[in-house]
């Protein structure tokens, strides 16, 4: 195998790695943003015996996952109280963050998936993850901090391989 052929196959690996990493980061951001709109929908159903409802008065409660604007929480309720109790967390910033985090993640996920200004989108996603890391440091959530560190490494790799990503719109950005 010639040297030229080796360079070509190495470049193909970088192209595939770049596309896969961009897709992973885009899907991760998009679905994380969508999950901010998830909630539990409770309903009552007729109790079934052997697949049939025998007594309409006999019901069971059923729950299912549902998405709606009413379910939206940018900052999970379980963490919001901890953030509010933290003296270094500015209340006005927490309120803004609570409103924009979900839509921002959805928008960044879409721009990364579609390759629209990939470098700028990845940079902004990295800044969002840094802000999330800061918040988790304040409330001593070491597991989440470690996961965000892994995400930051992936973003750095995606930025480093951005030249090998052939499917981009606004390639300079």
TrEMBL record:
Transmembrane segments annotated in the record for this chain: 100-117, 122-139, 145-164
This protein's UniProt keywords: Membrane, Transmembrane, Transmembrane helix
Protein name per its UniProtKB record: DoxX family protein
């Amino acid at each position: 195998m010639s040297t030229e052929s080796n360079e070509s196959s190495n470049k193909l690996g970088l192209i595939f790695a770049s596309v896969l990493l961009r897709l992973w980061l885009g899907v991760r951001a998009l679905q994380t943003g969508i999950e901010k709109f998830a909630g539990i929908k409770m309903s009552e159903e007729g109790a079934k015996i052997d697949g049939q409802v025998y007594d309409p008065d006999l019901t069971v409660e059923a729950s299912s996952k549902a998405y709606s604007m009413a379910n939206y929480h940018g900052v999970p309720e379980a963490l919001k109280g901890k953030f509010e109790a933290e003296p270094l967390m500015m209340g006005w910033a927490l309120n803004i963050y609570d409103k924009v985090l979900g839509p921002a993640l959805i928008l960044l996920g879409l721009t990364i998936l579609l390759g629209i200004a990939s470098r700028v989108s990845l940079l902004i996603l990295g800044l969002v993850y840094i802000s999330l890391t800061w918040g988790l440091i304040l409330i001593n959530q070491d597991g989440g901090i470690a996961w965000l560190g892994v995400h930051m490494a992936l973003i750095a790799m995606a930025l480093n391989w951005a030249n090998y990503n052939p499917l981009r719109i606004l390639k300079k950005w």
